[in-house]
Amino acid sequence: MLQGKTALVTGSTSGIGLGMAVALAQQGAKLMLNGFGDVDAALQTVRAAGSGEVAYHGADMRRPDEIEDLVHQCERQFGGPDIVVNNAGIQHVALVEDFPVERWDAIIAINLSSAFHTMRVALPGMKHRGWGRVINVASVHGLVASAGKSAYVAAKHGIVGLTRAAALECARSGVTVNAICPGWVLTPLVQKQIDARAAEHGLSNEEAERQLLAEKEPSLRFTTPEQLAALALFLCSPAGDNVLGTAWNMDGGWTAQ
Ligand code: NAD
After folding, report:
1. What InterPro entries does this protein's entry cite (predicted)?
2. How far is the CA of 77 from the centre of ligand 1 (A)?
3. Looking at the predicted structure, is the pLDDT value of residue 51 above 90?
4. Ligand 1 center from residue 89 Cα (angstroms)
5. What was the ipTM of the complex prediction?
6. Which domains does the chain have, with CATH numbers?
7. 167-217 tens-digit pLDDT
């Protein structure tokens, strides 16, 4: 479905981003990966999934100049990008009055501003070519809040707003901009929160996991990166041509309550 297209996925060395990159590669897209950690393993996984046309750029999503370079490098190497998945994200849990200022700044930069920077560089090319897809990985926290997550909730509400504004600007160009809003997904970002809960209350990993789900997610099931990637592929398909500015939840009923 995506032969000849180039996809750039930020934060694609792990979790949801890696799942998105694999699914896009399986559909024939060329992939520009980004993120920290085990880069070689991510490159190998995505190469094995697709044509092998996979590259990596280590841009730090806190740095607008590095983000510009990431998009330009993608353009030089593969053309495009035709698909941008803004996925890189971090979490920090603390009350507003205890929130480290440096963590606030990093969350706003990585979880919100980086999407503005990829879009401001990538959208002109997409509009010019008359086809493009921007998929912003927001969260249920783009729609509702939880205590202790002020920066994350602010950034994710922000990215939902950014998605809507950009979608309107692109409405007649063949480019769509949408947000995806997952509930709990069992990735390193969430495992840290399970570990913290287990340590605080003296629980087993299984019990901490069960409590985490029971608190928010009626289905009591994690969404998987593969399920989120299937939604991203739908948005990239012809059936997604007229889907604009949505904040599409996949959250086991979290936001239905
Ligand atoms: P993860 O920790 O597995 O992956 C995060 C990715 O972002 C990694 O590749 C990491 O290297 C990258 N990253 C972090 N800081 C970066 C930086 N400064 N520059 C470049 N890359 C950076 O987490 P995940 O759960 O897969 O999260 C992916 C996205 O999904 C995030 O935006 C997160 O907010 C969102 N999300 C996750 C969940 C969940 O339950 N896991 C739910 C809703 C939304």
Report:
1. 3-OHbutyrate_DH (IPR011294), NAD(P)-bd_dom_sf (IPR036291), Sc_DH/Rdtase_CS (IPR020904), SDR (IPR050259), SDR_fam (IPR002347)
2. 25
3. no
4. 4
5. 0.99
6. 6-183+224-248 (3.40.50.720), 185-222 (no CATH)
7. 999 999 999 999 999 999 999 999 999 999 999 999 999 999 999 999 999
